[in-house]
Amino acid sequence: MRAIQADLEGVSEQLRIPGSKALNPVNRAVRRAAGTLASQKGAIAAAFAPAKKAAGVAALDALEVSLKQFQDVLAAQDKQAVPAAQQAALAHVTDIEEALVTSFPFDVPPKYAALPQLKGRAVLEMKIKLATPRQDGVTGGILTMVADGYNAPVTAGNFVDLAARRFYDGMEFQRADGFVVQTGDPGNAEAGYVEGGKARTIPFEVRVQNDQAPIYEETLEDLGRFNEQPALPFNAYGTIAAARSEFEANSASSQIFWLLKESELTPSGANLLDGRYAVLGYVVDGAELLADVEVGDKIEYIKIVSGGDLLQKGKGAAVEAVAPVAAAVAE
């Protein structure tokens, strides 16, 4: 499945080749992915967790159909339709990989046991209301987001927990400058979600590709690993991350931001955000609406569509909170 995923994710790079020649390596990658699936489908199905077998088999069948449709798109030389076909196939890959997980792949450090944790992936829906309608009459819309607890269980867990509490419902966007869109400031002195009389803060969290578990409390820059590839990079328009004080890695609370830069402008490992701010997921549908958001526009609601059962509310002794600070994102 990792080989199939790598082939499909590589399509994004191949599409940057100008002209119709870009479709030649894409075609080879998709055919290779389809061949891998055909030869390994039985072995993959045999490896599904017992409780997830039915969902996994359905996802395998869906991926097989999706790859055939992808090849039809390529046969028609429809370059504009390639990204949609790619995302459709990758969505099924995600479902298959989740069905292969028999247990959570690592333990979150005990010192964070009191914090909410997302032990898997959750899908959330956010409805935005624009204060000023666009020229075409659009007054808002709905975005679909995926929070990735496999790679950021504490950061994603904090966000999903706040969404479950309806913390963001009715909240305004506090920043919209063409670089990021940001919200989550409730307007209190702590500039975050208050629990037990003080702001609930979470540690910085980043998982490097091929590392067994995330790193906590220190950025990759602090560790001298700034050129290494995070498992959740800032490589897509609509990347979601936790805002924090520029000078205090462990100061994130409720404020979050969405990146408004395309991947070719912010290549992984070559920008100022990777490894310095904790990514928790991505917008998978409706991201184009973020470009219309202005300061003062509102979130009507954020609700959990699926994966809410994977949220662990936290247990054990209270975690010592970092001194309250204003959250920010470096330019």
Main attributes of the structure:
alpha+beta, Cyclophilin, 14 strands, 6 helices, about 325 residues, 2 domains, two-stranded antiparallel sheet, Four Helix Bundle (Hemerythrin (Met), subunit A)
Characterise this structure.
With 331 residues, the chain is an alpha+beta fold. The protein is 27% helix and 19% strand. The strands form four sheets. Strands 4-5-11-10-12-3-2-13 form an eight-stranded antiparallel β-sheet, with helices on one face. It has a two-stranded antiparallel sheet with strand order 1-14. Strands 6-7 form a two-stranded antiparallel ribbon. The longest helix is centred in the N-terminal third of the chain and has 24 residues. About 3% of the residues have low confidence.
Short structural description:
With 331 residues, the protein is an alpha+beta fold. The chain has helices at residues 2-9, 11-14, 23-46, 53-75, 82-99, 153-164, and strands at residues 117-118, 121-129, 140-148, 173-176, 180-183, 194-195, 198-199, 205-206, 215-216, 239-242, 256-259, 279-285, 298-306, 311-312.
CATH topology of the largest domain: Cyclophilin
Structural class: alpha+beta
Strand order of the largest sheet: 4-5-11-10-12-3-2-13
H/E element order? HHHHHEEEHEEEEEEEEEEE
The CATH homologous superfamily of the largest domain: Cyclophilin-like
| Overall CATH class of the largest domain | Mainly Beta
Helix content: 25-40%
SSE order and pairing:
Elements: H1 2-9, H2 11-14, H3 23-46, H4 53-75, H5 82-99, E1 117-118, E2 121-129, E3 140-148, H6 153-164, E4 173-176, E5 180-183, E6 194-195, E7 198-199, E8 205-206, E9 215-216, E10 239-242, E11 256-259, E12 279-285, E13 298-306, E14 311-312
Antiparallel strand pairs: 1-14, 2-3, 2-13, 3-12, 4-5, 5-11, 6-7, 8-9, 10-11, 10-12
Helix pairs in contact: 1-3, 1-5, 3-4, 4-5
